[in-house]
Amino acid sequence: MLYPLTFEPIFKDKIWGGQKINTVLGKDFSPLPNCGETWEVSDVEGNVSVVEEGSLKGKSLRDLLAQYKGALVGEHVYEQYGDRFPLLIKFIDANDDLSIQVHPNDELAKERGVGYGKTEMWYIMQADEDAKLNAGFNREVTKEEYVKAVADNTIQDILNIEPASPGDVFFLPAGRVHYIGKGLLLAEIQQTSDTTYRIYDFDRVDATTGQKRELHTDLAVDAIDYHHYDDYKTQYERKINEGVNAVKSDYFVTNVLTFNQEVEHDYTHLDSFVVLICVSGGLTVNAPGGYSVSLKMGECALIPASVTNVTLVPDGDMTVLETYVP
Predicted confidence band at 55 (pLDDT cuts at 50, 70, 90)? Predict the structure, then answer.
């Protein structure tokens, strides 16, 4: 029988990573010197999540999909994606600016033979003073202007820079140029894809290799959305003891749940799995059959589609992201 699943984190050492995965989220990533990311729910080739607890402990997410199919992910989701889990859930600690980058959409990714595109969102969990990020351009830009800015190293002059604070949400459709700025700890929800086109890396040199990281400036040109938009930060109303929708896209829907009292969630109307991502505080997730799992900030649980209701019991104030495939 399926039950709320937690997975062993997959730790990623990054040139820009820091220590907050350990000091803030309490995850021991030794022996890595600087952990930039933990992949919490992943079906990326070579990085497939493994169940951490319960009768299915040791089974991979791919094993579960092959065995349980629609009971795990929802009949509609299985029909659409087959034996491929459609979302990748991460926590990211930026101890330095990430590279300026862009991801292709599905159409371009398929054309180039790199699987799927990558639309994603960020939820800011913790931010150092004056922390900032980039989402999109600060004005309308032509392809020619962009190419020139990359060539003469003035790309930063045309980027839209946003201050970032805990609770802020940024939705980044495929094609939007972006980077996470120094001092941010965030949760990322994205399509299952690891295709990134690095545009500029601040001339960093890898301490191990002594080399700069590879850039993909030519590949990026046709992947970019050059339009300027009025508002890059996702506006949503923050409420206590009431779920609020923050993001609605073709790939995932994400609601922000901030509660200090017990609440029951009925998922009968969804033909999808749900991932609960604890971004502050802590809670216990109780499911039928006596199954329960405790989550604290920086932990996730995958609620299979066959588990149609859960009770969330907060430990004081807690905020959880609730995400699923529409």
Answer: very high
pLDDT in tens, 65-74: 999 999 999 9
Phi-psi category of residue 46: left, alpha or beta, with phi > 0 → left and psi -120 to 50 → alpha: left
The span from the CA of 104 to the CA of 250, in Å, is: 15
The 3-state secondary structure of 265-276 reads: EECCCCCCCEEE
Return the C-alpha torsion angle 57, 59, 60, 61, nearest 10. -80
Which CATH code fits 242-324?
2.60.120.10
Say if residue 211's pLDDT is above 90.
no
Name the band, by pLDDT with cuts 50, 70 and 90, for residue 214. Answer: confident
CATH 2.60.120.10 occupies which residues in the chain? Answer: 10-234, 242-324
Q: What is the dihedral of CA 301, 58, 188, 98, to 10 degrees?
A: 150
- The residues annotated with a catalytic role in the active site are 198
Class in CATH terms, 10-234: mainly beta
DSSP one-letter code for 213: P
Residues 6+ apart with CB under 8 A from 76: 271, 272, 325
Position 213 scores a pLDDT of 86
Q: Check: CB of residue 129 under 8 Å from CB of residue 79.
A: no
Helix (H, G, I), strand (E, B) or coil at 66: helix
pTM above 0.70, yes or no: yes
